[in-house]
TrEMBL record:
Name listed for the protein in its UniProt record: tRNA 5-hydroxyuridine methyltransferase
EC number: 2.1.1.-
Keywords (A to Z) from UniProt: Magnesium, Metal-binding, Methyltransferase, S-adenosyl-L-methionine, Transferase, tRNA processing
Species the sequence originates in: Sporosarcina limicola
HAMAP family in the cross-refs: TrmR_methyltr (MF_02217)
Gene: trmR
Amino acid sequence: MDKYEQYVASFKVDSDSFIKDMENYAAEHHVPIMDCVGIETFIGLLRIQNPERILEIGSAIGYSAIRIAEALPKTTIVTIERDTKRYTKAVEFIEKKSLVDRIHIIEADALLTKSTEIFNQTYDALFIDAAKGQYQRFFEKYSPVIVSGGVIYCDNMFMHGVVLHEIEEIPRRNRTMIRNLKEFTQWIMAHSEYEASLLPIGDGLLIAVKK
């Protein structure tokens, strides 16, 4: 966290004990969740948009879905997680927060599922926060269920600064992922059906408004 992010974070109202427990669990078990500046900015943007229905790709332990549901009490969220352990923990947290009527979590591989619960409805917003090397595939699969004027948000566009390096400087095991992420960024920024912006917030937040 740089000095500007620290300054912004210093004004953050302390989270309740439940949210702190989630953050501690994520840190202890190495579960990636949005950082303080990223989640607060994201929630702020959602408050402006005020979506009725959100589709999330990558629930993890349900952290972002719960934060969104608490900030936007009239919003419902459908979220997808393929990792059984994380899915089970997310269900536990969602139930403890009494949000089962507003957060509908589905255990599935988002690239393979054809769930009617997902595809038989439309959404005002899509949040992609799953495998970074697959962002374009997620985008192409799920963007058709986003309404005109809806917004697609993608987190971790900077991958902790790794995207700033030349491919040759990146460990071989990560090269394909980073190459795909860079190509996706270039693709969506030039897409004629979206107005896209890449914000240097948190770990990089991309916002694409569907025309």
